[in-house]
Amino acid sequence: MQRLALACYSLLAWLAIPLLRRKLRRRARAEPGYGVAIPERFGHYGAPAQEGAGPLVWLHAVSLGETRAAAILVKALREQLPGMRLLLTHGTATGRAEGARLLQPGDMQAWLPWDTPGAVRRFLLHFHPAIGVLMETEIWPNLVAGCVQQAVPLVLANARLNEKSWRGARRLAWLSRPAYAALSAVWAQSDQDAARLRSLGAPVAGVFGNLKFDAQPDAALLAQGRAWRAAQHCPVVMLASSREGEEALWLENFKQKWPLTHTGYAQAAINSEDAAPPVQWLIVPRHPQRFDEVAQLCAAAGLSVSHRSQWSDTPEAADVWLGDSLGEMALYYGLSDAALLGGSFAPLGGQNLIEAIACGCPVLLGPHTFNFAEAAEGAVQAGAALRVADMGAAVDQALALAQGGARRRQMVQCCAAFIAQHRGAAQKTATAIASGIRSDGR
To answer: From residue 66, how far is each of 102, 134, 344, 429 by CA, in Å?
Structure first.
């Protein structure tokens, strides 16, 4: 039965290859990174893999968020295994671009192959990894089966499985259960994640916490952001990692509070006796391909927009600042007095709130945080974040916080305590991975 299920799945994956190629061509028009090294997607490589003395640790981080978590683990792994070489694989263009920053001489980077038996086999025979480390949620049936056949230990690190994904995996138990059960080890973020993973047959070997708590914000970027904030004449509030539809929700509330005039919203607020105190709004979209879309949305509403990519020494005056750069979230959080967490106001599951809290920026969470349920609930209980019902309530709460006072100072202190309490996952995970590498060190 298990073999039949995998064979049917493999046939469907093979039949989907033309659709995948078409999708990649379409995505490459908007994001050129998707047009890079397309043959790698199907297990074809132009040159032999680099050889080296140390073990080759293969780490798969599908997208930007997982790659940033992987960076924390890679640092700990290099301390545990000084001679290791790194193979980074990804599924998205943003993940691959971010991952390139982690490479050292002797390291390699490639796309994760499409999950057909042939592509997986070619990938494993080409690179010969000593161990495979999947980040967070990436389980592919043929990839797992191929690693078993090639005797490559395959582990799931920083593992999480929310309620929605767990229900979906249970519906496909004929396919998901053998894949989870064939992993060499799983290290979960929380007890809840561990329980759901165990119910699917996963060999949970420990609950290590979330790697993202071990991230250290870029000190220079954080300091620059705080210096710019100190120079502002009004507080700064950020809509952080916003997703499609959320900017429109924000704009709707914005126009209710500050009716636009030919003088711009800030002057209109000053001239109105019942208007809320003016603040500087900063929007940082989650996906770079939406930077222009969000700028156009704001401009169409009559707002002036200043692009971070066009700043020189200081932010330029405008109704809205647009954070259209990559790798500068620490700067944006340092610049902000409070942040509204994107992905949580539309039913998208929320984005990573840990980075904001690590930068000492109080966070307003919408109702949808199922992708980071434990971290979100813990942050609220610790006083580092506030849960609100909708975008309107978030704007109101953010405005109150941004004016300063004892409440914001207390939340900043709670941010530091919450982060300190949850650190340590990187060292535990690196130690476990090092102990699982094959004795031949290939």
So the answer is: 13, 10, 18, 15
**Catalytic member of 40, 66, 136, 355:** 66
What's the chain's Rg over C-alpha atoms? 23
- Torsion sign, CA atoms 434, 139, 367, 247: positive
Which residue is listed with tokens 């086999």?
A: 121
Task: Tally Cβ neighbours within 10 Å of residue 395.
Answer: 24
Q: The whole model's pTM is what?
A: 0.82
HSE-up (13 A, CA, CB side) for residue 182? 21
CATH architecture of residue range(s) 219-421: 3-Layer(aba) Sandwich (3.40)
Domain range annotation of the chain? 2-209+425-436, 219-421
Look up residue 277 and give its two tokens. 């105190």
Task: Please give the chain's pLDDT, 442 residues, in tens.
Answer: 678 889 899 999 999 999 999 999 999 998 899 999 999 999 999 888 778 778 999 999 999 889 999 999 999 999 999 999 999 999 999 999 999 999 999 999 999 999 999 999 999 999 999 999 999 988 999 999 999 999 999 999 999 998 989 999 999 999 999 999 999 999 999 999 999 999 999 999 999 999 999 989 999 999 999 999 999 989 999 999 999 999 999 999 988 887 754 445 544 444 454 454 579 999 999 988 899 999 999 999 999 999 999 998 899 999 999 999 988 999 999 999 999 999 999 999 999 899 999 999 999 999 999 888 889 999 999 999 999 999 999 999 999 998 888 999 999 999 999 999 999 999 999 999 999 884 444 4
66 is catalytic: yes
Q: Do domains 2-209+425-436 and 219-421 have the same CATH topology?
A: yes
Alpha carbon distances (Å) from 301 to 264, 308, 309:
11, 20, 22
In CATH terms, is domain 2-209+425-436 a member of 3.40.50.11720?
yes
d(CA 29, CA 332): 29
Integer angstrom CA distances of residue 35 from 31, 47, 92, 107: 8, 19, 11, 22
